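call fold(seq) -> tokens
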Amino acid sequence: MSKLTLSFIKTVEKPGRYADERGLFLRVSAGGSKNWVLRYQRDKRRHDLGLGAFPAVSLKAARLAADTHRLALSQGIDPLAQRQAEQQGILAAAGPVTFREEAERYIQTHRQSWKNVRHAQQWTHSLDDHVYPRLGAMTVEAIETDDVLDVLIPIWSRIPETASRLRNRIELVLDAAKARKLRTGENPARWRGHLDKLLPRQKRSQMPFSAMPADRLGAFVRELDSLDSTAARACELIIHTACRSAEVCEARWEEVDLVNRVWNIDARRMKAGKLHRVPLVEAALQVLEQQRGKHPLYVFPNARHSGALPGNAIRRVMAQLNADDYVPHGFRSSFRTWAAEHTDFPRDVCEMALAHTLGDKVEAAYHRGDLLDKRRQLMTAWSAFIEQGTRQVVSHLQPEG
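ret:
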């Protein structure tokens, strides 16, 4: 059997295994990555021992490593068992691992695979708020069912969606700890066949979002204006732009064009993955003016951590104003209901204001623009309605042109 050559290794792209000699082969994945593997038999069982990735591990280095492990095998030493023992020794020497340490490690490990950077922020903030106060200092091996229930029961019915996500996050962290041999036994955060017998099944609401009636927004915005709070300013911008909470909380100054009164939200931060131009009406510009100079990057900086304002800060400020019966995303519903019931702006203008993708593919194919000027008229009418603070019948309001 011919040996591998360096030129072949550098150019091969077809997925598969390519043998070198005496059990050493190069494994090429469908994604193009290349890894060295030593295959050997011990106790009538076949084992695959990873030797590292090419080119970090060269052909010469892989052959030397394979020779070293073959020598160990001839002396009755199983290299795979030896590696596992060494890893366990390292973990034991490092001492007990707390839940906070393991959770932070999990977030760091998986951060790059998550589509949106906000996902990592949600993990961190939700664990900070609800889990770490109870489990953060406990070692992962010591956590039991009662400890998990102590976290979940106070929020299970009050904020069911958050509670359900937290249960899943605790389960994932403890699964990772078990995979690293830091704990044994069943996962105390497992739902099926375990916590589903101890917690009531959550009822999903018929309405996805609880929206504040549009005629209450004027008074609510006046209350927001009385607060000297970054979260209050962010909430105001959500209302005056009908944008999503994440889009507002993570707004960057580089996206804001004050000269042309447009906010260009990066496609990577949009749910539809497309650039969204938001017309900035006078009320929105006033909010931005109040935030100028507070942070070089973020419009709404986080006072506790270096980064953007967390989404749950909006919920907190709403609770402060006794508006916690509603959710931040509901302001978009308030806007859409108002636009449909009290204006004659076309449907596609209203949908584009919400950055919704047009459902009809034929219709969408003919819409190459984003109707920015007409949307500016719509958002100006919306802000005027809010500022009046009372129900205003504008059923005859017509867009220009």
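Residues 228 and 290 are 10 Å apart (CA to CA).
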